[in-house]
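Course exercise 7: structure representation. Students receive a sequence record and must write out the corresponding structure in token form. The form below is the worked example handed out in class, using Glutamate dehydrogenase (427 residues). Read each field label carefully; the graders check that inputs and outputs are placed in the correct fields and that the protein name is recorded exactly as given.

STUDENT ID: A-19
EXERCISE PROTEIN: Glutamate dehydrogenase
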Amino acid sequence: MVAVTSADKPTMECETEHFLGAQRQLDEIAEEMGLDRELHERLRYPKRALIVTVPVRMDDGSVKTFTGYRVHHDVTLGPAKGGIRFHPEVNLGEVSCLAMLMTWKCALMGLPYGGAKGGIRVEPWKLTTGETERLTRRYTSEIINLLGPDKDIPAPDMYTNEQTMAWIMDTYSINVGHTVPSVVTGKPVSIGGSFGRTEATGRGVAYCVRRAVNHFNIKSDAPKVVVQGFGNVGAVTAKLLHQAGYKIVAVSDVYGGIYNPDGLDIPRLMAYVSEMGKVQGFQDSQEVANKDLLTLPCDVLVPAALGGQITEANADKLNCKIIVEGANGPTTPEADSILHDKGIIVVPDILANAGGVTVSYFEWVQGMMHLFWSEDEVNQRLEQIMGRACDQVLELSTKSKLRPRMAALRIGVSRIAEAKRLRGLYP
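STUDENT ANSWER:
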């Protein structure tokens, strides 16, 4: 995987645009904090990466072969933790980038995990349920040497869900000869999942919005919020903020967006989407294109769709005061600098969407102890941990004049660096 082209400069197959962007963020904060050069170099690359072929018997009797990945960026603080996504654009660079961000996210939240990520390059919407199950089980068997509740614990991600996790858990358990609930998180409650896990990421984003609005003194009785992406994360965020008295003025999904400057009725909208499958056509709203939705006037913008949505091309057109990143990597590094110059505060993804991995940690702990918590207990613990991390990042950002993204990275990277320093280099 590594080809050494000079004494100082290794090159890697994972060095795609996504991964190089994550490296640039690390390089920036490493220089700012004066990180030891050799430690810095160790953190710039994944610890290990596995590429597998995944042959699957299709419903018509033919066999198709897909490519799967699993990357561990760092395991200094504990077992690897990270989602598995099914998407045609999955590649080694994207997975390596997300594994690195997961390392910083877990360290920032104080969780005893390292960062991992996995995926299969596939168009999942073209598969039947049976084909998806066979794909999942074969992929699990191909990466099984990496998996285990004390080695690597997958979770759902793009186009995977609790059923996917149930299949992974079952495949792993059959291979080891006994049931191992804690080998995955995000699975159904009936087989060891945690209450509160489904809403956890959106709930964490909503917590961060409220903390940021209070910290930066947004003076409004009903702050206006635009949510890009009305899937699980965006819809939960919108619902909870609506309940808290915020005015959700626009939302969007893959088909387009809707806008009402006086605020949308979110409970009715959720019922409408459940029936119609999209937000367009909802009464008392006007249609808006996804690209235009990002530039609508608001107090808080929540990008909760795909990565790379806020770029150098549109960053200067944004008309919000705070961005809270519900998605992974929605803002490019170039856009981040433009937003900083405009005075727009960006609460970064490694903080804002960390609710999912935090409740995944709760699920893992409950499974290991065989002692389960109520949904109220889960939500209270989540709010405590998210609140502590938000306060630490925002206070460091204000005190040090670092962008919130760099403040979050500084906290996460410094915790990994200290652990590596204490553990030393073997042999």
